[in-house]
Specification:
Elements: H1 2-20, E1 24-27, H2 32-49, H3 51-57, H4 59-64, H5 69-89, E2 92-95, H6 98-119
Antiparallel strand pairs: 1-2
Helix pairs in contact: 1-2, 1-6, 2-5, 5-6
Length: 123
C-alpha cells in the first residue's frame, strides 16, 4: 500500500513538473495520464532501488557542497528514468536541457514533499 501511495504522489509530482517547467515535454502514447502514471512508476522504482546507492556514493561531495549536490543526484535519476521509459515503453518525458531537468527535479521534490505531508506518508 505504501508503494502505491508513493507511486501516485510521484505521478502527480511529475505531472506538475511537466505542466510548469519549460523544456520538459511528454512524449509517446495517446493518453497523457497513462504516460505520466507509467513514468511515475519507473521513477518510483528507480528512487527505491538506485537512489540510496547514489546517495551513499555521493555523500562526500554532498557534505562538501552542504547538500546542494543532492539536487544533482535527483536530476541524474530523472535522466535515468526518462531514458528507461523512452527506451523500453516509448512513453515518458523529453528533457531539452540540463537546466530544465534540474528545475524539474526541484519541482518534483517540492511537490512530492507537500503531497507526502498531506497524505501522511513518512518516506
Amino acid at each position: 500500500m505504501r508503494f502505491i501511495l508513493r507511486w501516485l504522489v510521484t505521478a502527480i509530482a511529475v505531472g506538475v513538473a511537466i505542466w510548469l517547467v519549460p523544456g520538459i515535454e511528454l512524449v509517446g502514447g495517446t493518453d497523457a495520464w497513462a504516460a505520466i502514471a507509467l513514468f511515475g512508476l519507473i521513477l518510483s522504482l528507480i528512487n527505491i532501488s538506485i537512489k540510496p546507492l547514489m546517495q551513499v556514493l555521493s555523500l562526500p561531495i554532498t557534505v562538501i557542497t552542504l547538500g546542494i549536490f543532492y539536487l544533482i543526484v535527483n536530476t541524474l535519476l530523472l535522466y535515468i528514468a526518462a531514458w528507461l521509459a523512452n527506451g523500453i515503453f516509448q512513453v515518458g518525458i523529453d528533457i531539452a536541457t540540463f537546466g530544465s531537468a534540474f528545475v524539474a527535479s526541484i519541482v518534483i521534490s517540492i511537490v512530492s514533499s507537500l503531497m507526502n505531508s498531506l497524505v501522511g506518508n513518512k518516506d
